[in-house]
Amino acid sequence: MNDPLPIGATIGILGGGQLGRMLAVAAARLGLKTCIFEPGGDCPASHVANYHFQADYDDAEALAKFAASVDVITYEFENIPTSALDILEAHKPIHPNRRALATSQDRLTEKTFLQSLGLATAPFANVESDDDMQAAVAEIGTPSILKTRRFGYDGKGQARLKASDDAATAWQSMQDAASVLEGFVDFSHEVSVIGARAQDGAVSCFDPGENIHRDGILHTTTVPARLTPAQRSDAVLIAARIMTELDYVGVMGLELFVTPGGLIVNEIAPRVHNSGHWTQNGCLIDQFEQHIRAVAGWPLGNGARHSDIVMENLIGNDVEQLAQIAQSDTAIHLYGKSDAKPGRKMGHINRIYTKP
């Protein structure tokens, strides 16, 4: 365990999107500085971070300078090149660690890891060729969904199979990218747990939230989720078990399917998570502060929920309806993006509500 960072220390953040932006804001509240490494200019995090290294991830000299200028390194997205991590880790600690990142970067590795812990997942099979595709369909059946093993998000890199005749078209759409075929799960709804683990091994989890997606993108997260006390406890224990096994430091997002036979793990994300944005207005300590505390070596905060919340993503032109969406009991979080493109997350709102 490293010594806690002092006030005024600098946290390096790989990635300059909205998650990096909200991490930088949380760090500033704690008296810590942030330096982002992001190839693009005028990115959301650059508006609020103290420093911005604008360079590509294959720029070894820039990576080394970035690492030398910070005290610890974290990240806001998973798809960081291994070569960049090799350079950075030679200079400064990276939280969450390389094992957590490698596990989540590849769907096959992730599901194999989860099953090794005795956790339930959707049935899956590896697909790297036409023959693999045919064998996977024979094993998993249809309906099913083919997903690229790497670089998929918000419904991208996926193809649904309604019947075995769809196999060839689905595999062609992957353009020879290594994939996994997943069987459909009969679930009533999806929930997610945002967990945090400190450098001393302490674990704290936020209340599970219930997710609704539109066009493969998270639309709303409602807290509390529809779960029995036993399911709620199981969800938190699953998150804690995964983080402990990975010797994890920081915040993790865990998506679960609720089924009659129990909870099934969908996927893990080794970072702050879209479905945890509700914590900004539903808890005293939100997911972003919790993550900063963990990577800085500070004690975790109390993430207890004080309000019932609905988080709603503002996608594309949704942001133009802000006047109608934003009521007096609604907190607005915009990301500073200038172009409202279809499917682009422009911000989110958190609305406190009273259950009927």
Outline the low-pLDDT stretches: none
Structural class: alpha+beta
**Percentage of residues in helical conformation:** 25-40%
- Our estimate of the beta-strand percent is 25-35%
Second CATH tier, the architecture of the largest domain: 2-Layer Sandwich
Keyword list:
Rossmann fold; 11 helices; D-amino Acid Aminotransferase, Chain A, domain 1; 4-stranded parallel sheet
Summarize the structure in words:
The protein is of the alpha+beta class. The chain has 3 domains: 10-94, Rossmann fold, CATH 3.40.50.20; 123-183, ATP-grasp fold, A domain (Dna Ligase, domain 1, 2-Layer Sandwich); 189-352, 2-Layer Sandwich (D-amino Acid Aminotransferase, Chain A, domain 1). The protein is built from 11 helices and 17 strands. The radius of gyration is 20 Å and the shape is globular. The model has no long low-confidence stretch (mean pLDDT 94).
Question: Brief description of this entry?
Answer:
By secondary structure, the protein is of the alpha+beta class. The chain has helices spanning 18-29, 60-68, 82-89, 98-105, 107-116, 130-140, 167-173, 229-245, 279-282, 287-295, 322-325; strands at residues 10-14, 33-37, 51-53, 72-75, 124-127, 144-148, 158-161, 179-183, 189-197, 203-205, 209-214, 217-223, 250-259, 262-269, 309-315, 330-334, 345-352.
Topology:
Blueprint: E1 10-14, H1 18-29, E2 33-37, E3 51-53, H2 60-68, E4 72-75, H3 82-89, H4 98-105, H5 107-116, E5 124-127, H6 130-140, E6 144-148, E7 158-161, H7 167-173, E8 179-183, E9 189-197, E10 203-205, E11 209-214, E12 217-223, H8 229-245, E13 250-259, E14 262-269, H9 279-282, H10 287-295, E15 309-315, H11 322-325, E16 330-334, E17 345-352
Parallel strand pairs: 1-2, 1-4, 2-3
Antiparallel strand pairs: 5-8, 6-7, 6-8, 9-10, 9-11, 9-13, 11-12, 12-15, 13-14, 15-17, 16-17
Helix pairs in contact: 1-10, 2-3, 4-5
